[in-house]
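This part of the workshop introduces the protein records we will be handling. Getting from the letters to the tokens is the skill we practise here. The record below serves as our worked example for the rest of this section.

…
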Amino acid sequence: MWEFVSSDKTEGKANGVTKIKVSGNRSTNDADTVRLWTIAGKGISYKSVVDMTEDLNAGKIERVLPEYCSPTIDLI
């Protein structure tokens, strides 16, 4: 389940959370493998912008659903 937070207040979605059930033909727990699959055009990924900034800036990938972001998490 992927969770997205909307900051689009024009549609009455004042920071609401949307959950989307996803499926696909690939699965891994390796972040770099997910990155490589995304760059290769094998699908979309749910990753931190920090992890993907270089690829975004180089035009290797593009951001989808820019009006949404992932929920924040606390690191302790």
